[in-house]
Design brief:
single chain; mainly alpha
């Protein structure tokens, strides 16, 4: 781990590996790791996005669009705290097992594209995963801008996925326009 990513209060110790025990040790870990989806041994970001998709479909049965928007806004604030605490406790600036950023980002996409059929949702999923994983242009900028530990790093974990969501929505809007 680069010394540039360590704040003065961060111990120089080995990074912690994600586990069910670690996830259950603190409520922030449970949230940041997407209620367990971040523990996937293969592509935890994709697993977190799939969990977001499924949970959105369930939540929209009980929440109005305004209620879902309020939940997303609250999830950004709670996620900022959870990602900050979990990254600090794992001693990694942006661990792959933290997937709350994918959850909030994809909830935002779905909230703004619904009602969409299965094909539309699948396109939104594929675009979001592309922007999140490949990090082209503005997503790469967002990923580099807020790095480290503390509030800045916790926000940075979320910020690049919010930019990936914005890029996804822009492509969908252009697709619908043309």
């Amino acid at each position: 781990m680069s010394d540039a990513l360590l704040s003065p209060e961060m111990p120089r110790a080995a990074a912690l590996r994600p586990s069910a025990g670690f996830m259950l040790a603190h409520p922030a870990h449970f949230v940041a790791m997407g209620f367990g989806s971040g523990l996937s041994p293969l592509a935890p970001g994709t697993a977190g996005t799939l969990w977001a998709w499924l949970s959105f479909l369930v939540l929209q049965r009980w929440l109005s669009p305004a209620g879902m928007g309020a939940l997303i806004a609250a999830s950004v604030l709670v996620g900022w705290w959870a990602c900050t605490v979990t990254a600090r406790n794992m001693r990694v600036a942006d661990p792959g097992s933290i997937v709350w950023d994918e959850v909030v980002g994809f909830w935002l996409v779905l909230w703004l594209v619904m009602p969409a059929g299965l094909l539309g949702q699948l396109v939104a999923f594929a675009l979001f995963r592309f922007f999140d994983a490949a990090k082209p242009g503005p997503v790469a900028w967002a990923d580099k801008t807020f790095k480290g530990f503390g509030w800045r790093g916790g926000f940075g974990i979320l910020f690049d996925d919010l930019v990936a969501a914005a890029c996804t929505l822009l492509v969908i809007a252009l697709w619908r326009f043309f």
